[in-house]
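thought: fold this chain, then report.
action: predict
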Amino acid sequence: DPNTFIKVLVSAVADPQLKPILVEFVKNRLAAEIFAETTRYTVTKQDLEEFKEWLERQVRIREKSPGATEGVSRDTASKHWKYLNELLAYLGYSFTLQRLEDLADELVDEFRYAKARHMLKAFRKFVKVVIRKRNRTLASQILEVVKVPKDRSKEIPLMQRIMLGYERAPTIDEIRKVAEVITNIGAKLAFVMLAETGLRPVEVFNLTMEQVDLENRLIKPLHISKTKRAYISFVSKQLHRFIVEEYLPWRDWFLEQYQYAVNNIGRDVEKWRAKFIPLSEDHIRAEIRLAMEKTGIRFELYKLRSFFISWMILERKVPGEVVAAFTGQASLAQVETILRHYFGGSVEKLREFYDENAPKILQ
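observation:
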């Protein structure tokens, strides 16, 4: 009952003996979510209309003085509007500072370098024109985090950048140290899965129970976009043990504890329950960020993808086309060809190969 809950909170705040317990609970159990939500920005229709009007004014300024540097050309304005809307749709028109931390790498990997630059330029302009008026501090934080990539090596696909030494990934020891201090079991699972599979964060965060076959330790992300695909990956034996012995009991508890709250805020409870990890992306990112702050080890979550590729290619000497099949950088036809050529069409042999070569974070 929400009313009873509020009464208990009020009593705890007023009670000198209970107040320290409440503060400690909030700090340890809710700090990550609170931290994430304080930097959330949700784009409104008014925001978009204001930005479009600003673009139109800039075009008029340029057209009055064609040789001047003030304003923007109609072509530039059109690109800003197009790419901003594409990016906002990609983000779901709502984001936190943590969500934006590895956005540049994510967009380069997902849409290629040139388009990623267009999207980020438009987004930064939107932040300066619109968000800065609403929240100057948040706008400054976003502009500090979201940069337009200038490194021309980013034009080279991720795997080639790693092979040429242009991409620095965290070490397995650094990843293990961070994983060890993540206290939230769901966030810990997400972090380890990212490191051990090389999947994109969006793929792991959006996995459903149907896409994870624990009996066969098989992950079927089924993520398909215009430029990327990811069809198959696996769960290591160590991670499988963690999931069965620690995560699934915790997940049952979590669903039971929060189902009432999820229903009360109008979310689709069945869709929420169907998620393999029923935490919000922002909550997962915030929990991992707290762990990184404890260890003093900081890197973007997308770097876990670089780590997996680097480990497989440089440490284990796995052929690039096989790594591409694991990480969704090959087409479906290419994946089927690789499976036949290297593993006789056997998923079981592919899993054995994964067990032998993939990094193991949990010890």
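thought: worth noting. Residues 237-264 form the longest helix (28 residues).
final: tokens above.
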